[in-house]
Write a structure and sequence with these properties.
By secondary structure, the chain is α/β, with parallel strands linked by helices. It is built from 6 helices and 12 strands. It has a 7-stranded mixed β-sheet. Strand 1 (2-5), helix 1 (12-21) and strand 2 (26-29) form a beta-alpha-beta unit.
Length: 206
């Protein structure tokens, strides 16, 4: 069973629908025991960093997330879910993120041909091959919607990047923690394969 953490963030339904289409038993929940009893856990999200962290605290989900990581349950953050895994964001100065991984979230700089937010399809490069991208060719396209991007402290955890005026760190992986800045559930066949690869991690097959 895969648990999707429910903290009133946008985009939860589309992630659930994609996983069901892949034949998974899925529960959308904020119940601690259900989450900790899951085989895999997903933190999706669309919205503001500060509001999302407040909701995670309000629903007493922060410690639950730490426990998921400590128990080595495969854990996937999507879009805002990726950003929340890090230490801070320029979107909401002074608000601490989950700090599961080292790094900060900064605003995409304005520039010629660069519209903010970054909305649309972009192709991926793989600086360090990750398990989410098994059997997915480099330069495959995925779908982004964001105004802020990751600057990770540990270059080795960055598994996929794209170019949008700057190098966008599009996916990370460290131990049982995975995250994508893009939306696999909105990225057609490539995105479904990424979710399938995560499911295979959950099953211990990747």
């Amino acid at each position: 069973m895969i648990a999707i953490i429910d903290y009133d963030a946008g985009n939860i339904k589309s992630v659930e629908k994609a996983l069901v289409a892949l034949g998974q038993d899925v529960v959308v929940t904020r119940d601690k025991q259900t989450i900790l009893g899951a085989d895999g856990v997903i933190l999706p999200g669309v919205g503001a960093f500060g509001d999302a962290m407040q909701k995670l605290h309000d629903y007493d989900l922060v410690k639950t997330i730490y426990d998921v990581v400590e128990k080595k349950i495969p854990f996937l953050g999507i879009c805002l879910g990726l950003q929340l895994m890090f230490e801070s964001s320029e979107e909401t100065p002074g608000v601490e993120g989950l700090g599961l991984l080292k790094g900060k979230i900064v605003r995409i700089p304005e520039g010629e041909g660069v519209k903010i937010p970054h909305i649309g399809w972009n192709n991926l490069a793989y600086p360090n091959m990750g398990r989410l991208f098994k059997d997915i060719p480099e330069n495959s396209y995925v779908y982004f919607v964001h105004s802020y991007y990751l600057q990770a402290e540990e270059a080795e955890i960055v598994r996929a990047t794209c170019d949008y005026g700057v190098t966008i760190q599009a996916s990370v992986e460290k131990d049982n923690v995975f995250a994508c800045q893009f939306h696999p559930e909105k990225s057609s066949a490539v995105g479904m394969k990424i979710l399938e690869n995560f499911i295979n991690v959950v099953k211990g097959e990747v």
